Amino acid sequence: MFNRKFMEELFKPQELYSKKALRTVYDRLAHASIMRLNQASMDKLYDLMTMAFKHQVLLCPRPKDVLLVTFNHLDAIKGFIQDSPAILHQVEEIFRQLTETYGGLSAGEFQLIRQTLLTFFQDLHIRVSLFLKDKVQNSNGRFVLPVSGPVPWGTEVPGLIRMFDSKGKEVKKVEFKHGGNYVTAPKEGSFELYGDRVLKLGTNMYSVNRPVETHMSGASKNLAPRTQENIAPNPLAKEELNFLARLMGGMEIKKPSGPEPGFRLNLFTTDEEEEQAALTRPEELSYEVINIQATQDQQRNEELARIMGELEVTDQPRQSASKGDDLLAMMDGL
């Protein structure tokens, strides 16, 4: 990704990449690692990347902060490669090139860069579950602009209008309610190789702990009364489960006293999520559970051997040597 020749081409003055060219570069970068993705997974990963970057550029407090977002990206990469001095040197060299190329640009030039990027992403309104949960994206795919938090560095909290005369002397002040909850920025983010960026845009979006939602949806709650008449377990299904338990080694009647080797199937992400789902599940939807215990004692092995013997098919002796030799003979035999 930080190959010297590739970076040299990237830093040459040029027109903005097309969406097709960007996707091609992204695919090659992703598959340069040991990761292998099918087309559907690659599409989702690309959509997540583009929408995440659009969110970061859109919410930059000031145009120059686009550079801080990029530095946050590089800081995260440096954290992954601390044990690889050669690659770390490559990343730090890119940092120096970024500082040299963009560090001296004016606010107007940064605004042009920011506007060009936003124009590139203008028609992309892909919904991301993480953004929807955090309420930073609406259901139509558009991002929510915050009306609280620190204002851009070097600016004042809104709420005051100053009026000056022709000589530049302040003659009047008018206060107004801005409807937000803004505070003064504590300090400017560092543009040095190592420093506090202050800005959180561009850092790991998944580092924040979020509660797992296991509540039933409205549609599920509405369907619950309709299932009252169907909550009785199907006896045929229960017999099939019992037969499956016998095939796998027998049914567990009593809870074993000691530890038992085996595997545990969990369809939830975490144990906490499973416990929460069990607590919120309506009682009428709870069924009896058949526990399957696959142990290897002699009696059950004999039972399995007997069942397997019943499933064996032996060849029937042929009535004559000529029967079935060809299709006509087979049809005559029928």
Automatic annotation (TrEMBL):
Tree of life domain: Eukaryota
Segments of this protein annotated with the region Disordered: 315-334
Pfam families cross-referenced by the UniProt entry: Oscp1
Protein name (database record): Organic solute carrier partner 1
